[in-house]
Design brief:
mainly alpha, two-stranded antiparallel ribbon, 18 helices
Length: 379
């Protein structure tokens, strides 16, 4: 087991390097880079950077047609494009640049501030927002984590309970009706439902009832909000969360529910279940002590990855419709604006989470089913 975990951890590094390398190469050939966008902005033909809330250069009283070489070099220095391609590539992963000249070599090497790169979890600063990538992720994280954490526990709780109930009542009207409802929810895209809810219950004048708040996950900023009690703030938070959460989780019920039902049904038809019932064991003990434990193995497949991803969940369309400033919108704007530090930094974090989640998935198999052994499979 230890050898297997060590091998998997070591394999993560070349995998991450390969993912970032491919993306880094692609960004070098994509037209409309930061220099081109800044040229367009300074020429009065671009609004992307203004909407992003940032800008790098301003020259009062001067109108630009084409940038002269001096301004071009200044732009390249701002975006770190004045360095050779190989150096920019290495700086993405790991780079050592000592600041203090008086410190000894050992002290300089051990100084964390002298290192930069993704492998030391330094992702640089955004081109247009004057903030580090980690600061931007921390700012957007509450919105994405609120949706992700709530939807994760809600989805798993409802789907497992509903899947077990459907398996126990297989073939009944309850099974047919719930299957129909689940499949209808699965077939309706979340953003379509969101538009439907906004039109009928949104803040607009044409809505039937004004049940959906205007924007955000709280009413922070409204007069007197700071004086609200804890329960008032919690109620307000749930009020803002209800509509986007419904659209976010509706499509995820079908797969997990049917997977739970089918796994439970398969176990209920096995010989050991018939033997347990023949011995006179109570039905609840047979279902929840024997069948449930063995039917959990297929459910473990996506659990660790979903658990890690719930903190960084993001949906561009839902965040746009409900005016939520989360990671989905941040990633989209970074791609459109060619904000490469955000693109590469978020990609590195998400890829690392996926690899760690996959490793935890494999380890979960061993914890649930003692018959699974990595040593035997390696042999």
């Amino acid at each position: 087991m230890t050898a297997y975990i060590l091998r998997r951890l070591l394999l993560m590094f070349p995998t991450l390097i390969g993912i970032i390398t491919i993306t880094f190469i692609a960004t070098q050939f994509v037209p409309g880079g930061p220099i081109d966008q800044m040229k367009s902005l300074l020429s009065g033909h671009g609004s992307t950077l203004t909407e992003a809330g940032g800008g790098a250069l301003t020259y009062p009283g001067k109108k630009f047609g084409a940038l002269d070489p001096k301004h071009m070099e200044q732009l390249k220095k701002i975006y770190h494009l004045d360095r050779p391609l190989w150096e920019r590539y290495l700086r993405t992963f790991l780079w050592y640049s000592p600041e203090g000249k008086d410190a000894s070599v050992i002290e300089s090497v051990l100084n964390y501030d002298n290192w930069e790169g993704f492998l030391v979890f330094k992702f640089g600063n955004s081109f247009y927002r004057n903030k580090s990538v980690l600061e931007l992720i921390k700012e957007k994280l509450p919105v994405s984590a609120s949706l992700g954490v709530t939807s994760f526990f809600l989805t798993y709780t409802i789907c497992i309970i509903l899947g077990i109930a459907k398996a126990v009542k297989h073939g009944t009207r309850f099974d047919t009706a719930t299957s129909l409802i689940v499949l209808i929810g699965y077939s309706v895209p979340g953003f379509v439902l969101a538009i439907f809810i906004i039109v009928l219950f949104g803040p607009g004048d044409g809505a039937i009832a004004h049940l959906i708040p205007i924007a955000g996950l709280t009413s922070a900023g409204t007069p007197g909000y700071e004086t609200w009690s804890f329960w008032d703030k919690l109620t307000d938070y749930l009020h803002h969360l209800a509509a986007p959460l419904l659209c976010y989780v509706l499509g995820g019920f079908a797969t997990l529910t049917l997977l739970t039902k089918n796994a439970f049904l398969e176990e209920m038809r096995k010989q050991y279940v018939l033997t347990a019932r023949a011995k006179g064991l109570p039905e609840k003990q047979v279902l929840f002590k024997h069948v449930l434990k063995n039917s959990l193995i297929p459910l473990v497949t996506g659990f660790p990855i979903a658990f890690l991803a719930m903190f960084f969940s993001g949906s561009l369309l839902l965040e746009q419709i409900f005016t939520l400033d989360g990671l989905g919108l941040l990633s989209y704007q970074a791609v459109i604006q060619r904000d490469y530090p955000i693109v590469l930094g978020t990609l590195f974090i998400f890829s690392l989470m996926a690899l760690v989640g996959q490793l935890l998935t494999d380890l979960s198999y061993v914890l649930i089913d003692k018959r699974i052994s990595f040593d035997e499979s390696q042999g």
